[in-house]
Amino acid sequence: MTDFKKLLAQYRWEEVQAKIYGTSDQDVRHALNRDNLTLNDFIALISPAATPYLEQMAVKAQQITQLRFGKTIQLYAPLYLSNECQNICTYCGFSMDNKIRRKTLSNTELLLEAMALKSMGVNHVLLVSGEANKTVEINYFLQAIELLKPHFSQISIEVQPLELTEYQLLQAAGVYAVLVYQETYHREVYKKYHPKGKKSNFDYRLDTPDRIGQAGIHKIGLGVLLGLEDWRVDSFFTAAHIAYLQKNYWQTRYSISFPRLRPAAGSVAPNFHLSDKHLLQLICAYRLWNENLEISISTRENESFRDHIIPIGVTTMSAASKTNPGGYVVDPQALEQFEVSDERDMETIKNQIRKMGYAPVMKDWESTYSGLIR
Predict the structure, then answer these.
(1) Can you tell me the mean pLDDT for 140-155?
(2) How far is the C-alpha of 81 from the C-alpha of 364, rounded, in Å?
(3) Cα–Cα distance between 40 and 16 in angstroms, integer?
(4) Alpha-carbon 37 to chain mean position
(5) Would the pLDDT of 23 be above 50?
(6) Sign of the Cα pseudo-torsion (278, 280, 283, 285, in order)
(7) Can you tell me the distance from the alpha carbon of 21 to that of 232, in angstroms, rounded to the nearest whole number?
(8) Residue 52 CB: number of other CB atoms within 10 A?
(9) Is residue 373 within 8 Å of residue 253, measured between CB atoms?
């Protein structure tokens, strides 16, 4: 099996960029009139040439999403386990060089946070932590999952890249999904933003989705940090990565997230600006290219944008998020990883979803069914 590193090496960033910006109006219209889109069609839909066709893209994206997923939005909430980190990432509030108070939740604190989420009706929790391999490591995660399993139907994780054997342990423990973001597929720029720590190893992070797929995890979530590099080029490489993974791990489900660089302690300003209009274009492009792809929007985005995107292509949204360990009840004043933009509570968001004719879903998967699905 050819790994994605070899496929990535076949591309030159500048050539992909030139192809995107050299897309013609005819290329866009050709992509919009096709049913089974290729990566070349995806390039056309994320190009500047596609901007005049945004309304047409949105209408088609809405039709595809409703046909495939119905009028539902799955809701989840993150539960931050720790802000300890051994990496220096210039855009992150948890970066090792930031002089902040560090905290890792104890078992008691973890359960207190869990009960706060349960009181909101949360049934799908995303466990998030900084990358501190000696403190928050596989045994810590397994213990946390064991504590939380009786309380949540779905447990997903977004933590440091792990070894294949560790992902196999997480799969056996009932983890539903693993999210891992490459941040940027530009190898040289990646080094600039990740100067120290295990995360500075570009290739190890790039290989992580393969290890997740080999472990048989139900769903893999990908994405880049929009703002570090040209979002159009990074998004092409993300789509290429998803296409590669779907070919090799066809029983696995896939999701895409769109984290835009948000203010955080000690962070850098975005290098590339992504407007709301361009983010809408990107979401539509992914939906038209891949009808089975789950599309997630976090509380990084403001409430107006999140409300307007509900009918178009999104399938999953976070709600009532706190991005610091203990943020719900244990330690609300701890430093956040990034600033949340949509600060509405869970019930307000659920009511807004209903108001728009959609159903908020708190649970849509049981681990007991996974053996039948795979």
Answers:
(1) 97
(2) 24
(3) 10
(4) 22
(5) yes
(6) negative
(7) 9
(8) 10
(9) no
DSSP 201-248: -HHHHHTHHHHHHHTT-SEEEE-B-BTSS-HHHHHHHHHHHHHHHHHH
Grade residue 337 by pLDDT with cuts at 50, 70 and 90.
Answer: low
Amino acid at 174: G
Higher pLDDT, 132 or 168: 168
Neighbours of 169 (CB within 10 A): 18
Question: Which pairs count as long-range contacts for 147-150, CB under 8 Å and 24+ apart, including other chains?
Answer: 147/107, 147/110, 147/111, 147/114, 148/110, 148/114, 149/173, 149/174
* pTM confidence score: 0.93
d(CA 29, CA 49): 10
Higher pLDDT, 266 or 343: 343
Q: Is the dihedral of CA 124, 256, 287, 356 positive or negative?
A: positive
Q: Which are the contacts of 160, defined by CB distance < 8 A and separation ≥ 6?
A: 129, 131, 132, 133, 136, 198, 199
Q: Are 81 and 127 in contact (CB under 8 A)?
A: yes
Q: What is the per-residue burial (b if ≥16 Cβ within 10 Å, else e) of 182-210? A: bbbbbeebbeebbeebebbebeebbbbbb
Residue 338's pLDDT is what? 54
Residues whose CB falls within 8 Å of the CB of residue 36, separated by 6 or more in sequence, listed in order:
none
The helix/strand/coil state of 30 is: helix
Q: Which amino acid is at 367?
A: S
Alpha-carbon Rg for the chain in angstroms: 20
Cα 41 to Cα 236, 240, 278: the distances in Å are 11, 12, 17
Residues 6+ apart with CB under 8 A from 268: 90, 91, 193, 261
Distance CA 240, CA 42 (A): 10
Q: What is the greatest pairwise CA distance in the chain?
A: 60
User: Rounded to an integer, what distance in angstroms lies between the CA atom of residue 59 and that of residue 284?
Assistant: 9
Residues belonging to the chain: 374
Q: What is the mean pLDDT of the chain?
A: 92
End-to-end CA distance of the chain: 21
Q: Which amino acid is at 22?
A: G
* Mean pLDDT of all residues in 184-211: 95
Nearest CA to 338 out of 297, 296, 374, 301 is that of 301
Measured distance CA(130)–CA(123) in Å, rounded: 23
